[in-house]
From TrEMBL:
<keyword id="KW-0732">Signal</keyword>
<dbReference type="Pfam" id="PF13650">
    <property type="entry name" value="Asp_protease_2"/>
</dbReference>
<feature type="domain" description="DUF4124">
    <location>
        <begin position="15"/>
        <end position="64"/>
    </location>
</feature>
<keyword id="KW-0645">Protease</keyword>
<protein>
    <submittedName>
        <fullName>Aspartyl protease-like protein</fullName>
    </submittedName>
</protein>
<dbReference type="Pfam" id="PF13511">
    <property type="entry name" value="DUF4124"/>
</dbReference>
<keyword id="KW-0378">Hydrolase</keyword>
<dbReference type="GO" id="GO:0006508">
    <property type="term" value="P:proteolysis"/>
</dbReference>
<dbReference type="InterPro" id="IPR034122">
    <property type="entry name" value="Retropepsin-like_bacterial"/>
</dbReference>
<dbReference type="InterPro" id="IPR025392">
    <property type="entry name" value="DUF4124"/>
</dbReference>
<dbReference type="GO" id="GO:0008233">
    <property type="term" value="F:peptidase activity"/>
</dbReference>
<dbReference type="InterPro" id="IPR021109">
    <property type="entry name" value="Peptidase_aspartic_dom_sf"/>
</dbReference>
<feature type="signal peptide">
    <location>
        <begin position="1"/>
        <end position="25"/>
    </location>
</feature>
Length: 192
């Protein structure tokens, strides 16, 4: 019986790793009559009189180590550009800033982009918000870099976290960091 359960857990983890996930975002920039530069991820939110002045900007993390960086905001969700490294492979991704998550998570798609082999993960069962129980793979990332903040040997769980992100930026990364989110300008400022 235990052998069947173990095989089922391994098969579930392998299936999760094979699910593809892609995230791409564009920001639109326009300057209003007061000279204020505005950003939005929804072109429908640009006032009609400023549509000709819009510029499309890919969320390319042109300066990923800046103390102030652009973020994507969906309602109360703050999506931040991150750089993740596993066994020397570095990948750019988008994480949901989640002060309610104990640890960082990465999606199966990001695990695949990082060449994480499911056999190299420690598998356990985890209960998520809502009470559902999932098989979860645990890995130790070389580092996670967000703005000027780089933390080494970060524990992460491989589990689907949402449609708009590659993972969650949990408290094992955010603990002891100071930051301010400006919902109007879609920016986050790290430090004092």
């Amino acid at each position: 019986m235990k052998n069947k359960i173990a095989k089922s857990v391994v098969m579930m983890v392998l299936a999760v790793f094979l699910l593809p996930l892609t995230v791409q975002s564009e920001f639109y920039q326009y300057q209003d009559e007061n000279g204020t530069v505005n950003f939005t991820d929804d072109p429908a939110k640009i006032p009609k009189k400023f549509k000709k002045k819009k510029k499309i900007r890919d969320d390319d993390m042109s300066d990923p180590e800046s103390k102030e960086m652009r973020v994507k905001i969906n309602g109360n969700q703050v999506l931040v550009p991150v750089t993740v490294s596993y066994r020397g492979k570095e990948v750019k991704a988008t994480f949901l800033l989640d002060t309610g998550a104990t640890t960082c998570t990465i999606s199966p798609g990001l695990a695949q982009r990082l060449n994480i082999n499911p056999r190299d993960t420690d598998v356990s069962m985890a209960q998520v918000v809502g009470g559902a129980v999932h098989a979860v793979g645990h890995v130790k990332l070389d580092y996670v870099l967000v703005g000027p903040n780089r933390k080494y040997e970060i524990d992460a769980s491989v589990i689907s976290s949402g449609k708009n992100n590659d993972g969650l930026l949990g408290m094992n990364f955010l603990r002891e960091l100071r930051y301010h989110i400006d919902f109007n300008s879609h920016t986050i400022r790290w430090g004092d």
